[in-house]
Amino acid sequence: MSRTLAVLVGGGPAPGLNGVINAVTLAARARGWKVLGVPKGFSQLMKGDVSKVRELTERDVAGIEVRGGSILFTSRANPTKKPEDMKNVVDALAKLGVTDLVTLGGDDTATSATKVAAAAGAGMRAVHVPKTIDNDLPLPGEAPTFGFETAKHWGTLLCNNLIVDAQTTGRWYLVTAMGRSAGHLALSMGVGSGAQLVVIPEEFPAGRITLDGIADLVEAAIVKRKADGHDWGLVVLAEGLLDRMDAADLASFVTLEMDEHGNPRLSEIDLGRVVRDVLNKRFKARSFDVGWITKIIGYELRCADPVAFDVQYTRTLGFGAVDFLATGSGNALVSLDGGKLAPIPLEKLRDPATGKVAIRRVDVTGGRFQAAVALQSRLAKADLEGDRLEKLAKAGKTTPDDIKARLSRLAR
């Protein structure tokens, strides 16, 4: 029986997408299969439009594995929302003669793929290759999600440049790093660049995170650095902090834009700027001047050329996707576990309570986080005693009692 494989990309970009497309095409064609590239995710198929679908050959994918972006583009269109969209997708794939579907994307794309395969019946199987620069999928063996290593690399280089600028100009940079609700990328960028402080949501107890709580950590770092003779530094704030903040707390500092459901678009907020405004009010009352620059880093990383790790990783996953379709059964997500290809039923990654794929968060009890904290400019218990406390108070233009009353809970 002849087989036709279709490959598409959903969700946001991540370095390495082209590596998967390259390997899927080469591996499938080596088996004598026809390979179809579906542009812009499910969006065109949901309209029943197959006019832009094209056959992929070895020549089409030659050399793309080292390039960022996606030759098939991407889309967040979700065919599971409306029955008519699902029917159009299934009918379009049947019209193309698709027997095997490979999707690249996140949880929504994976769910869409499995539901499309189920609706198509026994005539089609699906395999999903997970990607995200956020590294927040619970893959076996602590395997990173593809694209993360590249994002970490380029994000670290950007932070390195900002640190040199901060030192040269005597300023503090407040950088907000992408990462959705987890702090993996922010922590890696901060540690890799030697940032003076990294703040991630996992370090806060369950419940709401307050602006004052974040500002306290930043203030403590600034005052401690000042006491040691440094008027510059870099702070990396994880975007996921916003997910656990009260919109009302933010509304006094920024105009909140709402989505179609009436929820605030927290991901569009420059968290560094908000924290800066909180601290400026405090510092102005004490005539304490700090030079600030705020920056969001994220979109610069998503379509970067992949580093060697992600080139090898994604091509391995692409081969694994085809190998699973050729030798396995059912539908799955393909990953690496201990260096070996490991197809996983998507249901095994889902949280039974929410029905969604569980989020892998930073382990704050683990060595990576503990080492990171120890190497940052955070208050220690010794900072709150004797001459050291007097020095901190003088640097912060306040009193020892004020330092102890407001910031002693941060001491480690």
Give a quick rundown of the structure:
The protein is α/β, with parallel strands linked by helices and 412 residues long. It contains 14 helices and eleven strands.
List the helices and strands and how they pair.
Layout: E1 4-9, H1 17-30, E2 34-37, E3 54-55, H2 58-61, H3 83-96, E4 100-105, H4 107-120, E5 125-130, H5 148-169, E6 172-177, H6 184-193, E7 197-199, H7 211-227, E8 233-238, H8 247-251, H9 271-285, E9 292-297, H10 299-302, H11 308-327, E10 332-337, E11 340-344, H12 367-374, H13 386-395, H14 400-407
Parallel strand pairs: 1-2, 1-4, 4-5, 5-10, 6-8, 6-9, 7-8
Antiparallel strand pairs: 2-3, 10-11
Tell me what the structure shows:
The chain is built from 14 helices and 11 strands. The chain has 412 residues and is of the alpha/beta class. The strands form 2 sheets. A 7-stranded mixed sheet has the order 3-2-1-4-5-10-11, with helices on both faces. The protein is elongated and about 80 Å long.
- Tally the helices: what do you get? 14
Proportion of residues in helical segments? 40-55%
Per CATH, the class of the largest domain reads: Alpha Beta
The CATH topology annotation of the largest domain reads as: Rossmann fold
Work out the radius of gyration.
24 Å
The end-to-end span amounts to 65 Å
Shape: elongated
Order of helices and strands: EHEEHHEHEHEHEHEHHEHHEEHHH
List the domain count as a whole number: 2
- Strand line-up of the largest beta sheet: 3-2-1-4-5-10-11
Give the full name of the CATH homologous superfamily of the largest domain.
Answer: Phosphofructokinase domain
CATH architecture of the largest domain: 3-Layer(aba) Sandwich
Backbone structural class: alpha/beta
In this structure, how is the largest beta sheet organized? 7 strands, mixed
The low-confidence parts are none
How many strands in all? Answer: 11
State mean pLDDT (0 to 100 scale).
Answer: 95
What share of the residues does DSSP label as strand, in percent?
Answer: 5-15%
